[in-house]
Write a structure and sequence with these properties.
RNA_pol_sigma_r3/r4-like, 20 helices, Serine Threonine Protein Phosphatase 5, Tetratricopeptide repeat, mainly alpha, RNA_pol_sigma-70_dom, RNA polymerase sigma factor, RNA_pol_sigma70_r4_t2, single chain, 421 residues, globular
Length: 421
């Protein structure tokens, strides 16, 4: 294996294993910043050794063992400087060396959930909570997080650095809260899981359009939350949304990895078990008797697609109405853009184009590639293919995902060909 191929493989392994690694280390050292540093140290060692020795049979266990040894060394080395280590060194059986194996080999799911609630502590700003958790649990780069938030990469980097320092200074406990504290921190946790799922569903960068493992991890965490916060409709709403969206994975890319858009997917291949689970979760949210929140409303939109046997049978008028309700609950330019698509499908592209044209002056969408992509699609439908080609080319220049860029450039080329007929 060449060094380049090895580094690609290691990067893929890191994206899968980093969250578990950091969560386990955080339980050991009680500091998410130090835990991430230790995990990064293990990654550096892997990058140095694996191109020569080959990838281990169990790379996750190798990384954990390497990081664990460095954690033990750190706890010993910092005995005088680290007051926490002084306390545990005087008799806490949790941190005595014979028990370190049991500390590190605990339930990974519990560790991940503890890590989410730790990084979503109210001592941090809302933006910092989400950015830090995506970094530590999603394994996303600052650039990928910046794309998800539509903000500058430097802004995200500063948020993450400050967040880790704040958590360390505040000595935030590594635990899942209970009672009122759980409710207070739930919205941040849901937002984190939602953005994690979205990053897996449509990757903002890289060579692959989807990252199924990231979606699976988000869905698993959502299911755990649903068992903890059974009376919270938005938890069930988010789980419903992720279940239904996950049902489409087999049909979202071609055998060679090319994106397949929703209207072109083979619905017979959608996972009916996941759809049934999603509809059941949505029903649980509705039965709690409270107005539907943003996640439950999005799940209701997804359910419209899931229950339509063919694309032509989709109830676009209902979807447009649901987007109208969503825009009242959480008004945003992105929701408005999606509403424009639904309206165009229900009532004609001219109506959707009017809404999209009004969004072109929205500052937060200036670098958002889906705005020119949607506008290009609507322009094609009204016969303005020359303008559509320009929009698809602009969208291609804005996306960080290679597969999506190829799709957009192909659509631009089709417009160019049609424009000269």
């Amino acid at each position: 294996m060449t060094d380049t191929a090895a580094h690609r493989t290691i990067d893929a392994i890191w994206r899968i294993e980093s969250a578990k690694l950091i969560a386990g280390l955080a339980r050991m050292v009680r500091d998410v910043g130090i835990a991430e540093d230790l995990a990064q140290d293990a990654l550096v060692i892997a990058l140095e050794k694996w191109p020569d020795t080959g990838i281990p049979d169990n790379p996750g266990a190798w990384l954990m063992a390497t990081a664990k040894r460095r954690a033990i060394d750190l706890l010993r080395r910092n005995k005088m400087r680290d007051r926490k280590y002084e306390e545990i060194g005087r008799g806490s059986d949790l941190y005595t060396e014979p028990d370190l194996e049991s500390v590190m080999d605990g339930e990974i799911g519990d560790d991940l959930l503890r890590l989410i609630f730790t990084t979503c502590h109210p001592v941090l700003s809302q933006e910092a909570r989400v950015a830090l958790t995506l970094r530590l649990l999603g394994g996303l780069t600052t650039d990928e997080i910046a794309h998800a938030f539509l903000v500058a990469e430097s802004t995200v980097a500063q948020r993450i650095v400050r967040a880790k320092k704040t958590l360390s200074a505040a000595r935030v406990p590594f635990e899942v809260p209970v009672g009122d504290e759980l409710k207070d921190r739930l919205s941040s946790v849901l937002e984190v899981i939602y953005l994690m799922f979205n990053e897996g569903y449509t990757a903002t960068a890289g060579e692959n359009w989807i990252r199924p493992l990231l979606c699976q991890e988000a869905l698993r965490l959502g299911r755990i939350l649903a068992e903890i916060a059974t009376a919270e409709p938005e938890v069930h709403g988010l789980v419903a949304l992720m279940e239904i969206q996950s049902s489409r994975f087999k049909t979202r890319v071609s055998p060679v990895g090319e994106p397949i858009l929703l209207m072109d997917q083979n619905r017979a291949l959608w996972d009916q078990l996941l759809i049934r689970r999603g509809l059941a979760a949505l029903e649980r949210a509705q039965k709690l008797g409270r107005p539907l929140g943003p996640y439950a409303l999005q799940a209701a939109i997804s359910s419209c697609h899931a229950q339509a046997r063919t694309a032509s049978e989709t109830d676009w008028a209902r979807i447009a109405a649901l987007y109208e309700a969503l825009s009242r609950v959480t008004p945003s330019p992105v929701v408005e853009l999606n509403r424009a698509v639904a309206i165009s499908m229900a009532f004609g592209p001219e109506f959707g184009l009017q809404i999209v044209d009004a969004l072109t002056s929205e500052p937060s969408l200036k670098e958002y590639h889906l705005l020119p992509s949607v506008r290009g699609d609507l322009l094609v439908k009204v016969g303005r293919v020359v303008e559509a080609r320009e929009e698809f080319e602009r969208a291609a220049s804005l996306t960080g995902n290679e597969r999506e860029r190829e799709l957009l450039l192909r659509r631009a080329a089709e417009c160019a060909a049609n424009g000269y007929l």
